[in-house]
Design brief:
Blueprint: H1 6-17, H2 19-49, H3 56-82, H4 87-91, H5 95-99, H6 105-126, H7 128-135, H8 142-169, H9 173-209, H10 232-244, H11 248-257, H12 262-266, H13 268-291
Helix pairs in contact: 1-6, 2-3, 2-6, 3-6, 3-8, 3-9, 3-10, 6-8, 6-13, 8-9, 8-10, 8-13, 10-11, 10-13
Length: 301
Amino acid sequence: MLRLNPVYQKDLRTTARSLRTYIIIFAFNSLLSLFGLFALYFTFEYQQSLGNSVQYSAILEIYSVITGVEFFLLLLVVPAVTAGAISGEKERQTLEILLTTKMSPGSIIRGKLLASISTMLLLAFSSLPVIALVFSIGGITLRDLGGFLLLILETAVYLGSIGIFFSALLKKSTSATVAVYGIVLLLCLGTFGAVFGIHFLTQIHLNHLVTDGTTPMQADIGNWMLLLLGNPIATYLSVLKGQTGTGRSLAEIYGKYGNLSAVWNDNWFLISMILQIVIAVLLLFWSAALLNPLKKQPSVS
């Protein structure tokens, strides 16, 4: 039989017996159900009470609302779950015991990450009945659902590796949690802000160049748009646009701020997923190096 990672096995048992896990699952699905039922009511009952016909695109918007809420909750939960993975062991003074076992630092890191991913997959699969509301109406296929679950898994690995890294780098769980949320905020909003800022400065420069009274050209920041490849929200919007035709905000950013080649536009999800997985792997190797007692570096408090 396949031997489970001991750290993963131990954390999985602890998670399964923890009341906190059931509270998270209940709160997660309660919020998701609330938004899903509200979207259903607004799409059908409310629109019909106003005498408006229900459009087919409105059904797809229900899927967009439900998956959007679930993805947003994922961004909130993953840092909280992973930030204390290693720093918690430091605070309990059990990390040294783990390092004296036959397990390598890499195995410890993998076990912690797998335990965190398992929690996210548990949340994702527990939310399937809510997402199934859309299947009862039609418009979304199993392939679309599989693509969304793949996005959830990839994002959990990406954000989880960031949480594990700061948990290995810092001594306190509080410090690690603040650092992880700061990085996630920088990735999700900071990259959009950078794109907008670069476009704004480029547009000002073009406006100053126009001196003959003609209409100024629209600035094109081109490859600076690739900063969004590391943005989980941009990746989610690309998946949503491919499945439902919504996610217009990302398409508007492409058209208004920068023109990319068809290769980037057509394969944005695949390219961004590969890039984020590469970053995750590098962070996990770095985290293992931080735990290596033979290459011990002082932890930052």
